[in-house]
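dumping the sequnces here before i forget
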Amino acid sequence: MNRHNWLDNDDELLAELAVAVQAADVPGRVIQAAKASYTWRTIDSDLESLALSPEYSGYDQSAVRGASPESRLLSFEHEDISLEIEISGSLVRGQLYPVRSGLVTVVTAAGPFGDARTDDMGCFVADWPESGPVRIRCQMGNSNFITDWIQA
Amino acid sequence: MLGDLRYEQYRLDDAVRELKAARSHARADLDKYLTALLVKLQESSVGAGPELPSDRARFDPCPRNNAWVVVEFFRIDCIRRPAGASVQETATRPVRIHPDARRETDAMAMVELRELLSAAGRGDQDAWDTIVERFMPLVWSITRRFNLPEKDQEDVSQTVWLRLAERIETIREPRALPGWISTTTRNEALAVLKSKRRTNSVDPYGSWMAQTPLAGDAVDENLLREERQQALRDGLAELEPRQREFLLLLVSDPPTPYDEIGRRLGMPTGSIGPTRARLLKKLRGTSALRTFLDVRSDEIERGGESR
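..and the predicted 3d for all of it:
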């Protein structure tokens, strides 16, 4: 192993330096967006977090039953509550278990994107953005939930 | 395998404590230690998990970040102790700075980061901004390696930061932060690639996906590279402004021609070659690079002795 080749040779050191400098060359708007992310922090202690269920990490759909090539199924959970959603194109269909009635809001980094009330089966259909970070807020009477941020 | 572990805060705390205690152990001992730890974690998890593989595959990244940070903590700690590094290699590079010096700097950096994390957890926007500035190069360099269009890179980056903002107060161990960030960034970048695959009948990422760096060694390599790049940037920052400008012109993309460099810095073109050699030598001698290398040499040496 010649782990120090990159350092001992002038050309290689310069090449490493180029990579290091370019890696740090992040567009200003990306840094601004990252700093602004902080204002989105959930500080409402009444809001429970629904975490992306581990088997869906990386949003891998290969093992999900009924997943069509055009849609994605995702699942979020917190203790005994789960939210399953199916995203297809500009719509998201979802269901909350156990069944609850209330207001579901799709939220992007720019603010609320669309909302819908759940029906008597706990199901809803709402508008879904084309891209970017997004999460779902569920206001269900006394209990309120919010999912992890995911990419639309 | 790790995905089956049921994560709870007290288990993470226990794991971190154990790994801290294990820091003084040699690499082989650390491997045993981690295996024992994983078995323990698994036994305490809900339901029976699959068997632990006996090879290094057990260090494969876990899609579930919270179990991952345990392993990441371990990995960051032993990353400067690469497997296969020989004693001979060390012999050619004598230690010039006592490794304790680096450990002290390291410890100070960790104290500082711990304070930033805790301030950001309390709602301090300035602390958050500092964390963003410090770790954004890490996020960005990972997204760049996935060859995503810039818009997707931006979405990945913002998703990572939004998620971190949500859980900043739960990260108590500053050493776990770079690991959490790089794993989350990689997972989100992979999610984008998968969604591209879904919508494109022809898969432009197919060949690339086959070589996605997900093995433990590759992750070690990634983190090592980030550390090296940070050392280079720190070293550059130590140079005089004019010297820094000279090197930045040399590494600009596209490269600046020598006569242009000469014109901008008011120096004869003929002296650029020798100046380049002199400044690279100076860069090697900066405390950032010397510390980076000396710690590595020292740890390679200690790793070798323990065999």
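Chain A touches chain B through 51 residues (CB under 8 Å).
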